[in-house]
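User: Assemble these into one structure.

Assistant: Restating your components, then the assembled model:
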Amino acid sequence: MENAHSKAYWRTNLKYLAILLSIWFIVSYGCGILLVEELNQIEIGGFKLGFWFAQQGAIYVFVVLIFVYVRLMNKLDKSFSEASNEDLQ
Amino acid sequence: MSIQTWSFIIVGVTFALYIYVAIKSRAGNTSEFYVAGKGVHPVVNGMATAADWMSAASFISMAGLIAFMGYQGSQYLLGWTGGYVLLALLLAPYLRKFGKFTVPDFIGDRYYSQTARVVAVVCALFVSFTYVVGQMKGVGVAFSRFLEIPFTWGVVIGVGIVFFYAVLGGMKGITYTQVAQYCVLIFAYLVPAIFISALMVGNPIPQFGLGGTLEDGTPLLVKLDQLCVDLGFNEYTTSHRGKMDLFFVTAALMLGTAGLPHVIVRFFTVKRVTDARKSAGWALLFIAILYTTAPAIAAFARTNLIETVNNQPYTELPGWFENWEQTGLLQFNDLNGDGNVQYYNDANPEMIKTADELGWSGNELVVDRDIMVLANPEIAKLPNWVIALVVAGGLAAALSTAAGLLLVISSSVSHDLMKKWLMPDISDKTELRIARIAIAVAVVVAGYFGINPPGFVAEVVAWAFGMAAATFFPAILLGIFTKRMNMYGAISGMAVGLAFTGIYIVYFKYMGGTPDQYIWGISPEGIGTLGMIINFVVAIAISRFTPPPPAHISDLIDYVRTPESTH
């Protein structure tokens, strides 16, 4: 198990996690809570932007984040299993 | 047809559907009873997870809470959806790869210790019991109003239904019943929202309707801000409390979501690791449909309520007002004897002055938050069948969640305590029988607390999250992402997290603690976040001074981290 491929696989996974979780944090805690007053100065389509992030926008981003992760990991899983198979041959 | 007739018909039809599905998918062995035989399609599992997850609190209470809290209510919206990102990215795929039946299974194996397993079982039981009580109360509310059955009997009927299909079907039955329940509840939630949105702002999509413009040309949210301020309440769309508490409550709900055993266990039911990720995405998508509609319902309901009742003669109020008064969830007390309903914030000193000038002698209307969703279609004068649909939806939400929780309770007892600890020699058949008895007992106990509930629905549920955040989330996360974490660290982390969070909640809820004593202004609902941080600190510190885990644990971690071979 503990070979170069699985190490590289795990490192790439951690990198994806770091990026996606940063976005997760920024849209919810950032835009929805910490920066809400600043964003509320901006109005789009009948919404104050900070309020929109807190009650709508962040949730949409959450859904997208998970599906992006699914895609990234499916690709990574595939290249991992191909690399492992090459070693076996 | 009257609302009551419609309610009986629709509730009757949906119940018949659930029972049919449950009978069709009876569980024959423990694998089917605990994890539906691990053969559930990711989209189906996503839908079942959504129903499992969205409880009476989501369906009945949440929009009402937001209606009264405004922007502050975002903590529920963010908190109860953001946790799925954590689940999909940090927990679900690895736990699926691990591939056993329960959360205590993972904790027990990863931390090579029966003590860890038992601590996890105690936490799972505690969290699930706290949570299931809220569902029972939700069932009681729905029955008492619409079927005009006393609250207590409403709970008893709810208990009877859950008893029937949870005992019979186990996870397999529950999964497919939950799919049916999701369809019922989402339909029931959207129909009135679409009607109301179209009526009020001329846009049938509630998510856009929230930003829409009313007939008189003012944007809905601007109008609502104005109405609230005029009556001495806080402005609807802006923040007016410390950010610290909002931050901590949101985090506690997110981390709690990711740590709730009845949600995690749903990801054990799919075929492959990649399906676990995928079904978390589908689950959140199905949940988001309701969660992005809720704030629209909240804003519509609050606006409608104020405009319909405030300063109107009591005798001229619409019929729904009297209907809800009979349930005690809406109370009018004509303090100044003028025959009109005055609804305003009588705790606001500025407003008291204005009220005195107008001859008002205090707020005369008490609205239970729970009724906002249930009464909303009536307030908006929607047809009777829509109102009946909402009842069926509320019941679907409460029953699906209750069933999922009861399954965790029963598997904790029959699998984790009996099979894995006290009576390892029992046969699969005996284990299955114990699981069924455990569900039966749990249902009755939950029903009792449902009749004598310790707080309103969403509040009870919020505690369960704090507990899950402070115990399971750190233990599982550290178990997957660090190899050095050992049994001593994990056990002490969970124990300290549970004790700290529990004591804080009990102190402020039952022993007269006052808000000025809050640590950093954090309310009991948000304390789970601090409990989690303490758990992390204690666990990591103790693991550094105690022996590292044995070699086979390192192999186990490598195993859960590596994807399945596709060949």
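The first strand of chain A starts at residue 43 and ends at 44.
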